[in-house]
Write a structure and sequence with these properties.
Blueprint: E1 2-7, H1 12-22, E2 27-30, E3 40-44, H2 48-53, E4 59-62, E5 80-82, H3 89-105, H4 108-116, E6 133-136, H5 140-151, E7 156-160, E8 169-173, H6 174-183, E9 187-190, H7 204-209, E10 214-218, H8 227-235, E11 239-244, E12 264-266, H9 276-291
Parallel strand pairs: 1-2, 1-3, 3-4, 4-5, 6-7, 6-9, 7-8, 9-10, 10-11, 11-12
The protein binds NADPH dihydro-nicotinamide-adenine-dinucleotide phosphate and oxalic acid.
């Protein structure tokens, strides 16, 4: 059995060493053009040339949860695409989003400014009931985030494509459920995959449906949000601010208004990082299962190309 590693932006050596530890008797190599045909590939943003040269691949294991970039490429015809299924990401996402929600709700930025200017003063506490959070996407990451925020006693709404039940969360689904979901939400969290259906989903029309004084947290993909619409609604006062971890172009271009907007906090696509050890262990366990005869289609995280996630 042969495994190739082909991940743009990742240092190959520790990944290849980790995979070799899992499969000491097998061939595990960092891809170079002309490499012999492999059975499985571990990938992130691979060049099209790699995919063209390896048409026999049985599966592509993506070392991230989002497969939007991968699905834009011409993939080997029989290869299943398997995305990361949590692998240590959901706890990071829950931390990041809870931090952003609480920072806004408790006005911690305002307190920090006060303290820096030598001011000891109190702000009126808000009621949680006035700050319902809405999580778009109730998958592996969104569900964990929704459950975590419910633990802090925020009213939590969730929206998914198919109907779902999550304890402590008011669930909405489908296009028909979106308007009610938005109208019931003040702090909007995006944890959707990027697909043709979800691109630009946070546009002026959708954002205007949120409760006045809304707050936007985008931790999914930059193309979910229409940047100018967010800025216009912040400037009009309908939206109080935003925390953004993902952008249409990354790194965010230096001239982009998000860098300096006083009501927007940005981070460099870091809300949930791929953890190497967990990721290698998860992929290795799946490869072993397939080698023992488990159908690839039954693995957790197999992408449905029709749905795009
Ligand atoms: P999942 O596939 O587990 O969950 C996706 C959720 O979105 C599901 O609940 C799905 O609904 C819902 N959904 C998909 N399409 C629609 C639609 N058209 N309308 C309504 N709901 C929809 O993904 P994960 O939770 O693992 O990851 C989500 C995304 O987070 C990734 O695709 C990636 O882009 C992003 N991400 C960002 C990271 C970062 O560092 N910023 C790190 C990791 C991921 P249903 O339940 O019905 O299928
Ligand atoms: C992912 C990401 O999709 O890091 O895993 O954004």
């Amino acid at each position: 059995m042969k495994i190739l590693f082909c991940c743009t932006g990742a240092k190959a050596d520790p990944w290849v060493a980790g995979l070799r530890t899992e499969f000491p008797a097998e061939s595990v190599e960092d891809w170079a053009s002309g490499a012999p045909p492999a059975d499985y590939a571990v990938v992130w943003a691979p060049p099209q040339k790699f995919l063209n040269e390896q048409p026999q691949l049985k599966a592509l294991f993506n070392i991230g949860a989002g497969v939007d970039a991968l699905l834009k490429l011409r993939l080997p015809p029989e290869a299943a695409v398997v995305r990361l299924d949590d692998a240590g990401m959901s706890v990071q996402m829950a931390e990041y989003v809870s931090h952003a929600v609480i920072r806004h709700f408790r006005e911690l930025d305002g307190y920090e400014d006060d303290i820096r200017s030598g001011k000891w003063s109190y702000r009126k506490p808000h009621l949680r009931a006035d700050f319902p959070v809405g999580v778009m996407g109730l998958g592996v990451l969104g569900e964990r985030v929704a459950r975590t925020l419910a633990q802090f006693d925020f009213p939590v709404n969730g929206w998914s494509r198919s109907p779902r039940r999550v304890e402590g969360v008011q669930c909405f689904s489908g296009e028909s459920g979106m308007a009610d979901f938005l109208a019931a939400t003040r702090i909007l969290v995006c944890l959707l995959p990027l697909t043709p259906e979800t691109e630009n989903i946070m546009d002026r029309e959708a954002l205007a449906r949120l409760r006045p004084g809304a707050y936007v947290i985008n931790v999914a993909r930059g193309a979910h949000l229409v940047d100018d619409d967010l800025i216009a609604l912040i400037n009009s006062g309908h939206i109080a601010g935003a925390t953004l971890d993902v952008f249409r172009t990354e790194p965010l271009p230096s001239e982009h208004p998000f860098w300096k907007h006083p009501k927007i906090n940005i981070t460099p696509h870091t809300s949930a990082r791929t953890l190497r050890e967990e990721t290698i262990a998860q992929i290795a366990q799946k490869i072993r299962a397939v080698e023992k005869g488990v159908p690839i289609a039954s693995l957790a995280g197999v992408v449905d190309p029709k749905k795009g996630y």
